[in-house]
Amino acid sequence: MNKNILLILTLLISVISFAQDNSILNDTIDLDEVLVTAIRVDKKAPFTQNNISKAKIEERNLGQDIPILLNFLPNVVTTSDAGAGVGYTGIRVRGSDATRVNVTVNGIPLNDSESHSVYWVNMPDFASSTQSIQLQRGVGASTNGAGAFGASLSLSTNGIQDDAIAQVSLSAGSYNTFKTNVQFSTGTMKSFGDFKSEFSGRVSKIESDGYIDRATSDLKSVYLSASFFNENTMIKAIAFGGHEITYQAWYGIDGETLRTDRKYNPAGEITNDNGEVIGFYDNQVDDYKQDHYQLHINHHFDNEWVANLAFHYTYGRGFYEQYKNDRDFDDYGYTPIIVNGELINTTDLVQQKWLDNDFYGTTFSLLKNFDNVKLVFGGAYSKYDGDHFGKVIWAQYGSEMINDKFYDNTGIKKDFNLFAKAEYELNDNWNFFADLQYRNVDYKVEGVDEGPLDIKFDDQNNFFNPKFGVSYFLDQSNFYLSYAKANKEPKRADYLANNDVKPESLDDIELGWKFKNDRFLLNTNIYYMHYKDQLVLTGNLDDVGNPIANNIGKSYRLGVEIESAINIFNKLQWQPNLALSINKNIDKYAEFDGELQDFGNTDLSYSPAVVASSNIIFKPVKNLDISFLSKFVGDQYMSNIEHKNSKLDGYFVNDLNITYKMEPKNIFKTIIFSGLVNNIFNTKYVSNGYFYTYDDTWSDPDKTTTITGAGYYPQAEINFLLGLTMIF
Questions:
Q1: Count of domains for the chain
Q2: How many whole angstroms from its chain centre is CA 707?
Q3: How far is the C-alpha of 549 from the C-alpha of 138, rounded, in Å?
Q4: Which residue, 90, 168, 563, 658, has most beta carbons within 10 Å?
Q5: b/e string for 157-186 if b means 16 or more Cβ within 10 A?
Q6: Which run of H or E residues covers position 67?
Q7: Nearest one of 310, 324, 319, 306 to 396, comparing CA atoms
Q8: In CATH, what number is assigned to the domain containing residue 242?
Q9: What is the DSSP letter of 695?
Q10: What is the pLDDT of residues 470-500, one digit of tens each?
Q11: What is the helix (H) or strand (E) element at residue 480, kind and residue range?
Q12: Rounded to a whole number, what is the distance in angstroms from the first to the last CA of the chain?
């Protein structure tokens, strides 16, 4: 496929636009609505949801990734490899890791087809091009892409601007963190016939040394969009992409190092013959480029049906480079060599592991609003074609290894789904919801993996995911009850770790109450998520820092989530939320000390029983906002056997966010000053880690002893970011 088709289309559209017209954009082609209507839910739907506006996103958008910006939502836990929110970041919702959070951009799947993760580092500063975000906790309504087992996260890119603007944003802060951002919009212009047009774009650059030693980030990104529209039709072409170069920080540190040198980064260690560290490799980096192209077509028919059709293409390519000490030739498919009459079995070397992949497809939907019925039909088809290969670029011995691929395999995945949704408004009090989805996933991998090891598997799954719910409205209250079924295929790492891995299924029941008046808002819900063959994180990692999961038998999550907004008085508001949960393996068995042991009903890994947040907002004068944000995460285990060495201690951190807006009459339309102090009380805490075991059978041949170990990812101590935004 031609990698530049949609970019060329965007440029061609730009050429034929002319004559500015500042007329008001028709509501029916509000991009924030039409491109995401099929997969988002409205306030009447019987699902647990949070909606975040662009204004809320911008309050804290000083260079940190989107997961960090969502940190204070209910039952959300975030983490950063580099420690300060720039570089590789992650998000968990209800204890479910990022591979189980379905993410879409304008309805287009964003999760990587093989790892199921979203690597936000490949989309630096994407928050600056985001119009709104909806987070549905639990299974939620049907969406496109990977199955949602923890949440669905829907991002909508910037809507069409009525007026021309230019904007420059600058920020700087701790750890030599700098962000430069330039945005523009032409505003609405006359184009041809009754069509109007609008063009917008952004370029960004973010740099940071990171809190962790050498955890540097050099991030560049671009966003371009071109829109044509009239009263009934909109055509929008979008191109965005990023190039990230980050020094690796996914290795973590052990408990002793955490106590003595919490910023230490073992990545790139160079050791001598005695195993002593004598230096670090300068280019132990992850270097990856990713380009996204989207073409959206929306049309309102005379009979009031609304159709959406989108085409998308993503091209990703890059590598991570590693210095390896004392590596066996056998591991690279080579025999030992003779040097000066001496047999050499091992060598120091530098290797690169490459990914080169294409992801393309289409999404589509058809919507109709009757007097009391809303119908949505939709679906998607996509194909992923990814090459995995590795090569040695330098070796102390064995020059024949250089630039020869020591593994090479290909993964091909096809994903197809269809869904139908219906909302029926019986009367002013009762609203019913039904949602049926069919999904087919075909995944094949073939070639040579590291070892070298021949690998080949071919798995096809057919999933049926029904969802039903009812809402009842009474005065200022809304009560809802829903049931949702979800099924999910294993990811690439799961297949490679276990040939017998199975897909997992989930039944999710949600019971909620929403109350709102002029001074008080309360959303509370109880959820019960029952799993079969859940792929739970073992605590261990693969060689690139991705978590490894295994099927377990039955397990469940039972919890209550409460969030509120309270207007204490005219200039002071409090927004607290609290999540309490029980997350259990049922009758957990595992091999330990050479025996199959019954550990009983144990906590699910990475699932704290308590997660709470608070935001106190004070507005002492016009255009000045002061927010004091707090986050508490309770104790959690990194294993499923509640081993004491796998425990992560709970933590409580606080941030201070200040924004002040000026509206001068000359030159600038708006000037915004921002300040963010993270971890204001300088708490030393860890939000993520890993746990591993191995059996010792050589110390005592008559006894097997299970050895345990853990790694930790320390988060930054007190740090700050200052920002300046100028809008022309």
A1: 1
A2: 33
A3: 20
A4: 90
A5: bbbbbeebbebebebbbbbebebbbebbbb
A6: helix 66-69
A7: 324
A8: 2.40.170.20
A9: E
A10: 999 999 999 999 999 999 999 998 898 888 8
A11: strand 477-488
A12: 40
